[in-house]
Amino acid sequence: MSAPPFVLSPENVARAEAIVAKYPDGRQASAVMPLLDIAQRQGGGWLTQAAMDYVADYLKMPPIRVYEVASFYTMFNLKPVGRHHVQVCTNLPCWLRGSDVVAETCRRALGIGFGETTDDGQFTLSEVECLGACVNAPMIQIGDDYYEDLDSVTTRAVLSVLKQGGKPKVGSQMGRRSCEPKGGLTSLRETAPMAGKK
């Protein structure tokens, strides 16, 4: 039995056209990552081979080049994932700040290991490399949201809210503002004078 065909919706074709138009002639293949993201979102959070082939054909690329991109980046899923894709960063900054505790809390709270999905299809747990929020490590990404400054208690709280159908507070879970130091500002305490004003 062959896989069902994949075609972008009219709304997503318009998005794809706008993205491809940003690149110079002959460089449309540079749009492969954003187009894979559009296809993945339309496909329920993962990419079928048909979706990757569609993107390759759309961008006039050899399919193998699209497969290489999709299989290299952890942001692309090549098999179905749960409604909530819990991605635990275990790269060095997060590890130094306790990602092992966060990962173990996720395993226990969800009853699954890395690469597994809960029986109800609600949660998939993945280990990923740097997610780019190192200053507020350790952190996890769930869907498009970042949850930072985690420990076992706050990790359980985030997962509990999701299990109950709610939306947890994104960002720092310890009340840190943006990426300011934990104890507040230590330098640049004064507002800079306006340019040209004495």
Put the structure in a nutshell.
This protein is an alpha/beta fold. It has helices spanning about 10-20, 30-40, 50-60, 65-70, 90-95, 100-110, 150-165, and strands at about 85-90, 115, 125-130, 140, 145-150, 170.
CATH level 3 topology of the largest domain:
Glutaredoxin
- Most strands sheet: 6 strands, mixed
Architecture per CATH nomenclature, i.e. the level-2 architecture of the largest domain: 3-Layer(aba) Sandwich
Identify low-pLDDT runs. none
Q: How much helical structure, as a percent, in the residues?
A: 25-40%
Q: Give me the oligomer status.
A: single chain
What would you call the shape?
globular
How many domain regions? 2
Query: Which structural category do the helix and sheet elements fall into?
Result: alpha/beta
Describe, in plain words, how this protein is organized in 3D.
By secondary structure, the chain is an alpha/beta fold. The chain has 2 domains: 10-72, Arc Repressor Mutant, subunit A (Orthogonal Bundle), CATH 1.10.10; 84-172, Glutaredoxin, CATH 3.40.30.10. The protein has helices at residues 10-20, 32-42, 49-59, 63-72, 92-96, 99-110, 152-163, and strands spanning 84-89, 116-117, 123-128, 140-142, 145-148, 171-172. A 6-stranded mixed β-sheet has the order 2-3-1-4-5-6, with helices on one face. The radius of gyration is 20 Å and the shape is globular. The model has no long low-confidence stretch (mean pLDDT 92).
